[in-house]
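Please describe our next protein:
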Amino acid sequence: MKRGDHIYVMRKGGSYSHHGIDLGNGYVVHFTGEPGSKRDAQVEMTTKAEFLNGGREHVMRYNFYSAASPDVVVERALASVGDKGYNLAFNNCEHFATTCKHGTPVSLQVTGFALGVGLATLSIIRETTGRRR
């Protein structure tokens, strides 16, 4: 992995992914904490080993955004150290990493969940009313 990469690791048997920015020196900047204990979450710099927590590192690839230079990505990440305000739907670790990398907060996990809930709701409406909407 390279300096400025948006990296992630799967957690809880693949049920979600945790995201951060690789500083290229054995450290990662990311929102800390685990689900259910995010009240005190903040952006921190930790060792890559702490970030991975025994998991396998992956690099996020994007086809639809132009990424900032590694220097800008790392600068954005380091400038955010100490920031708080974690919110699962609007300001999570993936939002943080995409903002550093591309300047836009995006969470594919949240979008995918929202679409899944929407499709599930549509399916329930069809089943209970017997008609398509």
The chain has one domain: 6-104. Residues 6-104 form a domain with the endopeptidase fold (from Nostoc punctiforme) fold (CATH 3.90.1720.10).
